[in-house]
Design goal:
Blueprint lengths: L16 H13 L14 H11 L11 E6 L2 H20 L5 H7 L10 H4 L2 E8 L1 E3 L5 E3 L3 H18 L3 E2 L8 H6 L6 E10 L15 H4 L8
Antiparallel strand pairs: 1-2, 2-6, 3-4, 5-6
Helix pairs in contact: 2-6
């Protein structure tokens, strides 16, 4: 490729790829969204490592159009909870969510109350950068923003899970209040709010199963 420097690719050397794959599958199949969090402290360094891992995600034109905002201040967590519950109460009780939507959520036991937002040691709010801003203040076009930020968020969840931490992908709608509360610039838009911590000792999660492989993987071949 012209215009870019090149270095050798250092691929991972794996003796037994299938065994590694089975281990990764088992780990990820045990992951659950958690809403019952302990107030047990989480070292900031663990969150930093998870965010650093997430930031290795591929992105359109390598623009890396994401910002991870870390919140540990108790007062700010309280304000986030209050603002979230205003929007979520309207969703659940004010008619934003229709009956079909609420019926789909009912087995998961969710409602508009979000006390865990004050209990968890950390909240990470992921923002997508609709466009970049150069050193001279000029707008820089970003490409495939939602796709890029979605991949990075998935890698963040994976990193947190592999370190033994619990989290939840929470997307209160609308989310513009998060940009205002956190003082983010105009080019950033909230993508997801992720509480991070340890589950309570008696934490309960829905007894769910994943779709089997044959329902999510389809092989297509050329036909003569």
């Amino acid at each position: 490729m012209s215009g870019s420097s090149r270095i050798p690719y250092a691929s991972l050397q794996v003796d037994d790829p299938a065994a590694v794959g089975e281990s990764i599958l088992a780990e990820h199949d045990a992951r659950r969204s958690v809403r019952e969090f302990s107030d047990r402290p989480v070292p900031r360094r663990l969150v930093e490592l998870a965010v650093a891992a997430a930031s290795t995600a591929p992105s359109g034109a390598h623009r890396q159009p994401w910002t991870f905002v870390l919140v540990g201040d108790p007062e700010l967590k309280r304000r986030i909870r209050e603002a979230v519950e205003v929007e979520e109460r309207e969703n659940y009780l004010g008619g934003r969510m229709n009956e079909e939507w609420q019926d789909a959520l009912r087995p998961l036991g969710t409602d508009w109350h979000k006390p865990f937002l004050e209990i968890v040691p950390w909240i990470v709010v992921v923002f997508e950068q609709r466009y970049g801003i150069g050193d001279d203040g000029e707008r820089i076009h970003n490409y495939y923003v939602k796709e890029s930020v979605g991949i990075a968020t998935g890698m963040l969840l994976s990193a947190l899970h592999r370190m033994g931490l619990a989290c939840l992908t929470h997307t209160p709608s609308p989310m513009r209040f998060l940009a205002d509360l956190l003082g983010r610039p105009e080019n950033e838009r909230p993508f997801a709010l992720i509480p991070i911590g340890y589950p309570t000792d008696d934490c309960q999660v829905p007894d769910i199963s994943r779709k089997p492989l044959h329902q999510v993987l389809v092989e297509v071949t050329c036909e003569d």
